[in-house]
C-alpha cells in the first residue's frame, strides 16, 4: 500500500457507511485538494459497487472539510447489467461536506473506435520546469505528494508574465513510485494551478462543482495534463482538463466551475 493508497483508504463500518481519515498532506494552503477528496469518496463507492471503475463522477463542494476523521455515506440508487449509480456524501462532524453522484462500470481496455489527438503538443519533459518549493508556513503540503513539470509559458504568471489566457499544462506523476489508476486520476485532474492564474488572476479559487469521466485505464508512466478555460465572468470561471497517459491515450476528462481567486 502506497502513502496515497493509505491516505485515501475507506473502511466499511456498516451497510452504508465508511470511515475515512482525511490526510493533511493534501492541503493547498489550508483547504484539502478537491481531487484528493474525490479519491477518498470513490474508494468507498467502488468498494460498495458490483463494478470495478468510477466512470463518471459529479461532486458539489458544499464546505471545505478539515484533516482528520470523517465518513462517507453511500446510497445505492440503481444497478444494472453494465453500470451502477450511487449517491455518496462526505460527512464530517455530522455535516455534509461534499455530495457526489457516481456511475461505476467495468472497463476492459478495448481499442478506441475514434480518438482525437491532444489539442496541444507538450514540449519534451527536459524543457519543462517545476514550480519553486513552497515555504513551510504556506501550508501547501500537496506539492510534496506529486511531481509536476510545467510547459513554461503556462506558469509565466509566477514571474508577473501571464499569457492572458486561462491555461495550464504539465506532466504529472506521484512522488512515491506508483502507476496511475482511477484514484490517482481523480487527484490528477484537479492537480494543476487554477487556469485563471495564467489569465492574470491570483488567490484561492474554490471549486463549486466538478465532473470528471474515466475514459480508459491508464498505462504505467507519467500523465500529461492539459487545462483550459472558456469564460471568466461575474467572478466565476470554468476549467476543462484532459489527462493523457504515457502511450498517448486520453484516459480522463473533467470540467469544473469555480470562483475567481480571492486575495
Beta-strand content estimate: 35-45%
Quaternary structure state of the chains depicted: single chain
Overall tally of structural domains = 1
CATH level-two architecture: Beta Barrel
Strand runs, count: 13
Shape annotation: globular
Order of helices and strands: HEEHEEEEEEHEEEEE
Q: How many helices? A: 3
Distance between the termini: 38 Å
Mean pLDDT: 95
| CATH fold topology | Porin
What structural class do you assign from the helix and strand content? mainly beta
Please state the CA-atom Rg, rounded to the nearest Å: 18 Å
Topology (elements, then pairings):
Blueprint lengths: L2 H5 L2 E5 L2 E6 L11 H15 L4 E9 L6 E12 L4 E9 L2 E11 L40 E5 L16 E8 L7 H7 L18 E8 L8 E6 L3 E2 L2 E9 L5 E10 L4
Antiparallel strand pairs: 1-2, 2-4, 3-6, 3-9, 4-5, 5-6, 7-8, 8-10, 9-13, 10-12, 11-12, 12-13
Question: What is this entry, summarized?
Answer:
The protein is mainly beta. About 10% of the residues lie in helices and about 40% in strands.
Amino acid at each position: 500500500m502506497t502513502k496515497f493508497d493509505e491516505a485515501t483508504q475507506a473502511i466499511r463500518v456498516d451497510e452504508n457507511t465508511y470511515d475515512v481519515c482525511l490526510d493533511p498532506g493534501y492541503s493547498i494552503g489550508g483547504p484539502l485538494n478537491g481531487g484528493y477528496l474525490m479519491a477518498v469518496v470513490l474508494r468507498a463507492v467502488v468498494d460498495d459497487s458490483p463494478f470495478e471503475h468510477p466512470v463518471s463522477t459529479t461532486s458539489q463542494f458544499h464546505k471545505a472539510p478539515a484533516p482528520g476523521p470523517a465518513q462517507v455515506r453511500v446510497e445505492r440508487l440503481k444497478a444494472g447489467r453494465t453500470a451502477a449509480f450511487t449517491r455518496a456524501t462526505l460527512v464530517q462532524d455530522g455535516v455534509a461536506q461534499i455530495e457526489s453522484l457516481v456511475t461505476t462500470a467495468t472497463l476492459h481496455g478495448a481499442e478506441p473506435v475514434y480518438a482525437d489527438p491532444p489539442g496541444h503538443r507538450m514540449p519534451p519533459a527536459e524543457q519543462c520546469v517545476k514550480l519553486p518549493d513552497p515555504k513551510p508556513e504556506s501550508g501547501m503540503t500537496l506539492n510534496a505528494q506529486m511531481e509536476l513539470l510545467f510547459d513554461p509559458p503556462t506558469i509565466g504568471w509566477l514571474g508577473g508574465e501571464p499569457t492572458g489566457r486561462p491555461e495550464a499544462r504539465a506532466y504529472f506523476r506521484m512522488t512515491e513510485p506508483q502507476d496511475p489508476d482511477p484514484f490517482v486520476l481523480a487527484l490528477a485532474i484537479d492537480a494543476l494551478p487554477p487556469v485563471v492564474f495564467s489569465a492574470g488572476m491570483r488567490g484561492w479559487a474554490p471549486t463549486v462543482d466538478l465532473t470528471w469521466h474515466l475514459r480508459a485505464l491508464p498505462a504505467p508512466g507519467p500523465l500529461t495534463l492539459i487545462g483550459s478555460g472558456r469564460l471568466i465572468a461575474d467572478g466565476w470561471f470554468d476549467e476543462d482538463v484532459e489527462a493523457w497517459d504515457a502511450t498517448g491515450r486520453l484516459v480522463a476528462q473533467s470540467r469544473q466551475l469555480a470562483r475567481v481567486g480571492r486575495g
